[in-house]
Specification:
Structural class: alpha+beta
Shape: globular
Strand order of the largest sheet: 2-1-3-4
Number of helices: 8
């Protein structure tokens, strides 16, 4: 009885990673997104190749991060597997069906404070593409 009081039962802690994809904060466990066989296959890919894959996905669907969360999380997990310090990516496609070469990609490493603020704003429904741009990407004039 006393041991339970002194040492509470362990709860399984699921390691979650926060990743900003355009203006959506994703929370996922990278290890769970790819089976071991696939992990070995993707180990040989470069960040440049993963970026091209992302550009292809966004050329097909410029709102991928909003419309297909599972694919967005897989893309984020691939980016993290190639560049563990990166926790944000911006893919800009001029329109659906555009040429892959016309899609732009940028990567960033965000501090925990910024990521927490973005997640809090997203959870409250206040995170917009303009807010994400101001906080991270700084593409628009102030």
């Amino acid at each position: 009885m006393m041991a339970g009081f002194l040492f509470p039962p362990r709860s399984p802690v699921v390691p979650a990673m926060l990743f900003l994809l355009n203006d959506v904060v994703l929370s996922f466990d990278p290890a769970e997104l790819t089976p071991p066989v696939t992990r070995d296959r993707f180990a040989k890919l470069s960040l440049s190749y993963v970026g091209e894959l992302g550009k292809e996905l966004f050329s097909e669907e410029p709102l991928l991060h909003l419309k297909d969360r599972e694919r967005a999380e897989r893309l984020a997990a691939l980016i993290v597997s190639k560049a563990p310090d990166v926790n944000a990516a911006l893919f800009i496609a001029p329109g659906r069906g555009c040429r892959v070469a016309d899609v732009q990609v940028r990567y960033a490493q965000l501090g925990i404070e910024i990521m927490a603020t973005l997640l809090e704003r997203q959870n409250s429904g206040a995170l917009t593409n303009i807010e994400a741009d101001r906080q991270v990407w700084r593409r628009l004039a102030a």
